[in-house]
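Fold this sequence, please.
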Amino acid sequence: QVQLVESGGGLVQPGGSLSLSCVASGFSWEFHHIGWFRQVPGKEREVIGCISSRDDYTSYAKSMKGRFTISRDNGKNTVYLQMSSLKPEDTAVYSCAVVPATRVRGYCPKSEYNYSYWGQGTQVTVSS
């Protein structure tokens, strides 16, 4: 059974940093692309970026470049999202998602509609 579990969310002050983890089970992590997304209640889901199964190629939404970094450790079946210089508007539920690399041409996609499996998400609140 495919399962994704995010962790690391919490309350952080503006300007602070936070690192989220996404741990997978039930499939071979190394053959999947992974995406990170976030969503505020009542608003559309927003892509942060993704990391590809091969070469660890990463791609970010333009608005996310510079403050967010995605990395992966296939040995631990874990993908990380490092966040820095956090702002109150970064407050959201952050989720990871995966798609088998064989289902996507090229590198990891940034559209949520390409992704097959999702985690429950972890809440990040940026507030003083």
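The chain has a mean pLDDT of 94. The two ends are 40 Å apart (CA to CA).
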